[in-house]
Amino acid sequence: MDQDMLRSVLRDISADAVPTPLADRALRGASRRRRTRAAAGVAVAAVLLAVLPFLLPAGNRTPQHPGPPAAGTPSAPATPAPSATPDVSRSATAEVSPPGSSIPVSPPATSSSTPPPG
Amino acid sequence: MDSAAEQHFREFVATRTPALMRTAYLLTGNQHDAEDLLQGALTGLAMRLRSIDVLDLEAYVRRAMYHRQVDRWRVRLGRRETPTDPRAVQLDAVVGDSSGRIATKLLVQDGLRRLTAKQRAVVVLRYYEDLPEAEIAAQLGWSVGTVRSTIHRSMAKLRSLVPDLAALREEM
Questions:
Q1: Host H or E run for residue B39
Q2: Which pick of A82, A88, B66, B84 has the fewest CB atoms within 10 Å?
Q3: ipTM score of the complex?
Q4: By the 8 A CB rule, do B123 and A9 touch?
Q5: Is the pLDDT of residue A84 over 50?
Q6: Residue A48 belongs to a domain
């Protein structure tokens, strides 16, 4: 048997195939596949949208540990520095000390312990 | 797909289905699988019709069929069908028809079923489509050496299965 014979036999075998109308089936299959792909895309997008809010704050919620102070930077004093200007907010009720005096001077008392004149 | 593209697709399918079905039949070995194979390739074509050059429709479908057939072979590796006994086929052929041509046809048909899908695809491309090895390599995305060795193994197997093919030497 030579190669022409094999070709001829292959042609004989292929002649057994029965052509069937496949256009409609192929078009239906294509539209079905397109719908499936679109649905899969929508599903993936929905999952991403649902998960994204949980993912983003988790990224911002990373613990912020204060690092050790830099060597050249002095740390803030524990007690506040004395202010040159008196505290205005407490002027009405604060005890006023004259300069050089360590004894606090109270404002005139209006309490009921002092008897009225006369 | 718009109506013009659909019309073009329908004309192409109506015109070329007989030839494409013959190739699919040779690749698969039976009518049902041939229809499935061709329909799958045509479905892929229908999805991409706008992006494919009009002249390349048939080339696209044929290429898709060959690739699908080889992939299908990968999927079906685990569940191979048990082929029939070639001697039984020969006996039936001799009893049914005295002419050696039909007997040879049945033997070759059975031998093709015993090849792997890759081997069958190569035999079909080489001896039915009459494509040179370089063209087969381009169609399947293989190297020429792979095509050549696959043809060699396929023909050796066919010769062992079909005694009438013993004298056949593949063209190199």
A1: helix B31-47
A2: A82
A3: 0.78
A4: no
A5: no
A6: yes
Measure CB to CB from residue B34 to each of A6, A17, A29 and give the nearest one. A17
Q: What local confidence, expressed as pLDDT, does residue A110 receive?
A: 45
- Please give the Cα distance from B123 to B145 (Å, whole number): 15
B110-131 burial: b if 16+ Cβ within 10 Å, else e? bbbbbbbbbbbbbbbbbbbeeb
In a domain, A49, yes or no: yes
Res B109 pLDDT > 80: yes
Q: Are residues B129 and B23 in contact, defined by beta-carbon separation less than 8 angstroms?
A: yes
Split into its structural domains, chain A has a count of 1
Q: What is the pLDDT of residues A65-76, one digit of tens each?
A: 555 555 444 554
Whether B25 sits inside 8 A of A3 (CB atoms) is no
Mean pLDDT for B45-52 is 79
Q: Which domain holds residue A32?
A: 24-60
Domains of chain B and CATH, by start: 3-78 (1.10.1740), 86-165 (1.10.10.10)
Mean pLDDT, all residues of chain B: 80
**Is A4 within the bounds of a domain?**
no
Indicate the residue of A1, A13, A21 with minimum beta-carbon distance to B109. Answer: A13
Residues on B contacting A at a C-beta cutoff of 8 Å: 1, 6, 9-10, 13-14, 17-18, 21-26, 31, 34-35, 38-40, 42-43, 45-47, 101, 104-105, 108-109, 112, 123-124, 127-128, 130, 164-168, 170-171
Contact B66, B128 (CB under 8 A): no
Give pLDDT, residue B106. 87
